[in-house]
């Protein structure tokens, strides 16, 4: 059965689901009325799975950013219906203002916040541990260890949220989000509720200190209630062993593999809840053992609690973790990490899982060398090529002009061959950072580069701020119509995705911000693009260039033209001789070295964007 059947009522057949898909199914089974969020890998594929499904009977949509998504979800919850809001860990930073406030006000319909952490930063950004947010907001947080648990916990989280009257967080990590297993489905609840909302500013506003303090007290009580309702999610297994393990989330699976391989039977406490921690169970475990290993990725949050509780046990207990032990604060765990800890405790008799040489060879053979650069035919390649050319034509060296970068595909402009973007902080920061550089007194031009999705997400306030201040920066908005980096999600300005929705025009927003020096240009028209950039960067006032061309991947999906460009070998002087070689200057993945040392264009991937034709001064393309 395919993912499009995720809403099936046939629950007799288990389905192969990733952690993300299992959570999506859990929300369906819980009778959710709204699923919304902002794309951010690894969380993206929950909403993607729902969007691929047919006739789910509830609303599923991408929001403009995580804070807005959470607020929309809150409105649904306050009106008595159920909602799920999804985001990656960086998105939780964006949503946190709303999240903390709503946590204090509480919920009516079940409100579940799914956040995906990314230990080892497989997808970039800060390697943060979102469990801190649960503690900060006194928010209940569940940490499933498998796709089956992801489904079961999600379904139950809605009931729990309604029982305690607070949002419930579910945290999974990249490995679990992407791991698949055969999952047993449950029945889909049909929830028909009449939406309603009462006037009650003591709950739904922050109406003075007394109300705020009361909200805080109520939040703490709700958290305690959540702890007693979810005791079964933290199973404690006591054996004859004087060694114990505490696991959180997916680390449970690594421990299981390691102990089964070595036929060990330690005591275990499997934490399915990250907040509140089951302190009595931890104390019971400590009272039965001499050594405890805490397996949790990133911060030593459980470990610190264990260290504090150790003082309440009447005999010494050695705690092995990050504070006193070999486990790392960075990166993710795996079976090898757990085996290394077992070595410390049990000595050399510990076995490692065997990986056959043949399998290792097959894995090595699958590795593909690839530049970390724009896709074949990407319009951003044209923009950054033109930008570098412009800076040179204006008489500056590259290191004399600061170009701030932003989140999304556009940041690939920091890599070879362009090495244009100097910075990457967070969504929308390129514009405000550029303003700051100017405030500091940087005399040379400062240029901000930002993609369309990022501009809508968080760039608009920065644009208004820069315009209001009259700061002379140049802002290049690279508009390819899609949130492309996360897999082509549409946004409020996606033109080929109109359906019944209003398309928001970037140019109109920029002009409404009072900026008059605004130009729209197709970056593939290099001869037109460079003078426009020169004029904008030389301007004595704030200027905006909207570099607009649809993401080639999306365009090609619709058109499937199959047209490509060719190199004429008799004209190509050779990649080693050519002083401005297309391969080096553009880094297009479709340009390769032929056996004769000349450029060769792969006809199966070239999208005929024409950029190499422009670059070649020998007329060879
Ligand atoms: S035309 Fe040239 S630059 Fe454009 S996709 Fe084809 S090979 Fe790459
Ligand atoms: S730019 Fe032209 S001459 Fe130079 S390597 Fe490419 S195809 Fe050959």
UniProtKB/TrEMBL annotation:
<dbReference type="GO" id="GO:0046872">
    <property type="term" value="F:metal ion binding"/>
</dbReference>
<dbReference type="GO" id="GO:0043805">
    <property type="term" value="F:indolepyruvate ferredoxin oxidoreductase activity"/>
</dbReference>
<comment type="subunit">
    <text>Heterodimer of the IorA and IorB subunits.</text>
</comment>
<feature type="domain" description="4Fe-4S ferredoxin-type">
    <location>
        <begin position="597"/>
        <end position="621"/>
    </location>
</feature>
<dbReference type="InterPro" id="IPR011766">
    <property type="entry name" value="TPP_enzyme_TPP-bd"/>
</dbReference>
<keyword id="KW-0004">4Fe-4S</keyword>
<comment type="function">
    <text>Catalyzes the ferredoxin-dependent oxidative decarboxylation of arylpyruvates.</text>
</comment>
<dbReference type="InterPro" id="IPR002880">
    <property type="entry name" value="Pyrv_Fd/Flavodoxin_OxRdtase_N"/>
</dbReference>
<keyword id="KW-0249">Electron transport</keyword>
<keyword id="KW-0408">Iron</keyword>
<keyword id="KW-0560">Oxidoreductase</keyword>
<dbReference type="InterPro" id="IPR017721">
    <property type="entry name" value="IorA"/>
</dbReference>
<keyword id="KW-0411">Iron-sulfur</keyword>
<keyword id="KW-0479">Metal-binding</keyword>
<dbReference type="GO" id="GO:0030976">
    <property type="term" value="F:thiamine pyrophosphate binding"/>
</dbReference>
<dbReference type="Pfam" id="PF01855">
    <property type="entry name" value="POR_N"/>
</dbReference>
<dbReference type="InterPro" id="IPR045025">
    <property type="entry name" value="HACL1-like"/>
</dbReference>
<dbReference type="Pfam" id="PF02775">
    <property type="entry name" value="TPP_enzyme_C"/>
</dbReference>
<dbReference type="InterPro" id="IPR017896">
    <property type="entry name" value="4Fe4S_Fe-S-bd"/>
</dbReference>
<dbReference type="InterPro" id="IPR029061">
    <property type="entry name" value="THDP-binding"/>
</dbReference>
<keyword id="KW-0813">Transport</keyword>
<dbReference type="GO" id="GO:0051539">
    <property type="term" value="F:4 iron, 4 sulfur cluster binding"/>
</dbReference>
<protein>
    <recommendedName>
        <fullName>Indolepyruvate oxidoreductase subunit IorA</fullName>
        <ecNumber>1.2.7.8</ecNumber>
    </recommendedName>
</protein>
<dbReference type="InterPro" id="IPR009014">
    <property type="entry name" value="Transketo_C/PFOR_II"/>
</dbReference>
């Amino acid at each position: 059965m395919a993912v499009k059947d995720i809403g099936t009522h046939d629950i007799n057949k288990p389905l192969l689901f990733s952690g993300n898909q299992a959570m999506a199914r859990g929300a369906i089974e819980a009778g959710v009325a709204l699923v919304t969020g902002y794309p951010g890998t690894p969380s993206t594929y929950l909403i993607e799975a729902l969007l691929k499904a047919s006739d789910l009977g509830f609303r599923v949509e991408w929001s403009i950013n995580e804070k807005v998504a959470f607020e929309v979800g809150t409105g649904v919850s306050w009106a008595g219906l159920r909602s799920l809001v999804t985001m990656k860990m960086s998105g939780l930073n964006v949503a946190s203002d709303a999240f903390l406030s709503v946590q204090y006000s509480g919920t009516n319909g079940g409100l579940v916040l799914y956040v995906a952490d990314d230990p080892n930063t497989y997808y970039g950004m800060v390697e943060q541990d979102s469990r801190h947010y649960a503690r900060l907001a006194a928010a209940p947080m569940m940490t499933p260890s498998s796709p089956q648990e992801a489904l079961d916990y999600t379904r139950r989280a809605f009931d729990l949220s309604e029982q305690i009257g607070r949002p419930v967080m579910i945290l999974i990590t990249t490995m679990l989000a992407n791991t698949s297993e055969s999952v047993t489905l449950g029945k889909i609840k049909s929830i028909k509720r009449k939406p309603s909302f009462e006037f009650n500013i003591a709950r739904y506003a922050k109406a003075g200190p007394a109300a705020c303090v009361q909200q805080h007290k109520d939040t703490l009580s709700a958290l305690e209630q959540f702890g007693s309702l979810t005791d079964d999610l933290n199973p404690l297994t006591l054996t004859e062993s004087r060694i114990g393990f505490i696991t959180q989330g997916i680390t449970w699976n690594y421990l299981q593999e390691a102990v089964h391989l070595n036929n060990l039977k330690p005591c275990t406490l499997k934490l399915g809840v990250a907040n509140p921690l089951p302190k009595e169970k931890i104390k019971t475990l400590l009272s039965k053992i001499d050594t405890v290993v805490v397996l949790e990725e990133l911060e030593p949050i459980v470990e610190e609690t264990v260290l504090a509780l150790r003082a309440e046990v009447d005999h010494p207990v050695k705690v092995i973790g990050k504070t006193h032990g070999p486990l790392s604060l960075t990166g993710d765990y795996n079976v090898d990490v757990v085996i290394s800890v077992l070595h410390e405790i049990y000595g050399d008799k510990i076995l490692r899982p065997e990986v056959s040489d043949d399998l290792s060879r097959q894995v090595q053979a699958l590795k593909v060398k690839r530049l970390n650069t724009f896709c074949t035919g990407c319009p951003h390649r044209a923009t950054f090529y033109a930008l570098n050319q412009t800076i040179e034509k204006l008489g500056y060296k590259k290191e004399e002009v600061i170009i701030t970068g932003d989140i999304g595909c556009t940041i690939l402009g920091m890599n070879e061959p362009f090495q244009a973007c100097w910075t990457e902080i967070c969504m929308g920061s390129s514009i405000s950072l550029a303003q700051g550089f100017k405030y500091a007194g940087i005399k040379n031009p400062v240029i901000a580069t930002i993609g369309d999705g990022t501009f809508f997400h968080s760039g608009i306030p920065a644009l208004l701020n820069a315009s209001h201040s009259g700061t002379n920066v140049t802002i290049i908005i690279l508009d390819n119509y899609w949130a492309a980096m996360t897999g082509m999600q549409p946004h409020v300005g996606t033109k080929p995705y109109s359906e019944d929705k209003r398309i928001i025009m970037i140019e109109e927003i920029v002009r409404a911000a009072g900026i008059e020096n605004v130009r729209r240009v197709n970056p593939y028209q290099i001869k037109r693009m460079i003078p426009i950039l020169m004029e904008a960067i030389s301007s004595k006032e704030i200027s905006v260039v909207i570099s607009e061309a649809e993401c080639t991947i999306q365009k090609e999906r619709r058109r499937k033209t199959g047209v490509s460009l060719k190199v004429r070998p008799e004209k190509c002087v050779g990649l080693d001789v050519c002083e401005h070689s297309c391969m080096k200057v553009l880094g297009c993945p479709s340009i390769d070295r032929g056996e004769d040392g000349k450029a060769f264009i792969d006809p199966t991937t070239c999208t005929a964007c024409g950029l190499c034709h422009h670059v070649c001064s020998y007329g060879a393309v």
